[in-house]
Design goal:
This protein is α+β, with helices and mostly antiparallel strands and 323 residues long. The protein is built from seven helices and twelve strands.
């Protein structure tokens, strides 16, 4: 198996465990098949790279999760007829670039129905987006281009980093810059903050909604977060496609529809921080943007660790303790 980051191996192993649990439980009650693609083979390799003890831990987490999701989604267990096959698929990573964050899909083509799972292993970040000289975050995230003013501010900073990298043949480190929080992070974050506020002001009602859709995806999904001795299930039901009944079979619990924000309330620095902005939106959404360098060596780009700090009270969240 090609070298893959540890976090990715853990995530892929969990995706496979979930898919396998869906298959094992559902093959007893309905016609089910697995899409045998490259992503599926990669996930098997990741799962099999663990010892027996770790594998059974993955399967235990997956088993609890799948049992719970079967109660929420009657269409998983119920087909119309023999031709109504439930297909289970592990999605290629590149789907995430187009705004689809789902890792595992369950599809019934005959019912024109599918649900997706975003599988997380001990991590809750929603996105790891970059800022650089030539990344127009307004266009890429929100469909509204950044102003010339934004690029006028950030270009000299990133150009300086490009020059340092070039002169040192990519050996110069961030630490050698001294207080790079003040010289690099702060001016870039200030420019980002001002631009986000300006974009919202010039495009009322659009930016707040698109920001959340960019971060959490443009498809409804369940997020399953594997933790120590527990698993958390969140339902991002933005379009209302989750939790549907099958004929007269109703779900055993109700998943409310989530409201998207329409207004950006404020963008401020987190207390005592030079690296993290808090973006507060209406309808109960708050997002943190922590900027950092992805490598110890200087690169002409910076990375965001983006987390959902708070979400609407209508977000369905359930924690299952494994006992």
């Amino acid at each position: 198996m090609a070298k893959i980051a540890t976090q990715t191996i853990n995530g892929k192993a969990f995706e496979y465990a979930l898919l396998l649990e869906f298959y094992e439980k559902l093959k007893l009650v309905t016609k089910v098949s697995i899409v045998d693609n490259v992503s599926y083979k990669t996930a098997i390799s990741c799962f099999e790279s663990f010892g027996e003890k770790e594998r059974s831990q993955y399967m235990l987490n997956a088993s609890f999760s799948v049992n719970f999701l079967l109660d929420l989604e009657p269409r998983l267990s119920n087909g119309i007829n023999e031709e109504d096959i439930l297909e289970l698929e592990i999605v290629a990573d590149k789907a995430g670039q187009s705004g689809d964050v789902r890792d595992v899909l369950a599809i019934r083509s005959l019912q024109k129905w599918e649900i997706g799972i975003s599988a997380k292993n001990n991590h809750r970040a929603v996105k790891h987006s970059r800022l650089s000289n030539d990344i127009d975050f307004g266009e890429k995230w929100l469909g509204t281009p950044c102003s010339e003013n934004y690029f006028t501010v950030i270009k000299p900073i990133f150009n300086g980093l490009t020059q340092l990298r070039k002169e040192s043949k990519a050996t110069k480190t961030w630490a050698s810059l001294g207080d790079y929080h003040s010289s690099v992070y702060l001016p870039v974050l200030d420019a980002f903050k001002d631009e986000l506020i300006a974009l919202d002001r010039d495009n009322p009602g659009i930016v707040a909604q698109r920001l959340v859709q960019y971060l959490i995806g443009n498809q409804d999904f369940y997020k399953v977060i594997k933790g120590k001795g527990k698993v958390e299930i969140q339902a991002y039901n933005l379009q209302g496609t989750l939790n549907l009944p099958f004929a007269n079979v109703k779900p055993k619990a109700k998943v409310p529809k989530l409201k998207l924000p329409t207004r950006l309330i404020e963008v401020v620095y987190q207390n005592n921080s030079t690296t993290t902005l808090l973006v507060t939106l209406n309808e109960g959404w708050q997002i943190s943007f922590r900027i950092h360098n992805a490598s110890s060596r200087i690169e002409p780009s910076l990375k965001f660790d983006i987390n959902l700090v708070s979400s609407p009270h209508t977000l369905f969240v359930n924690t299952l303790f494994l006992g």
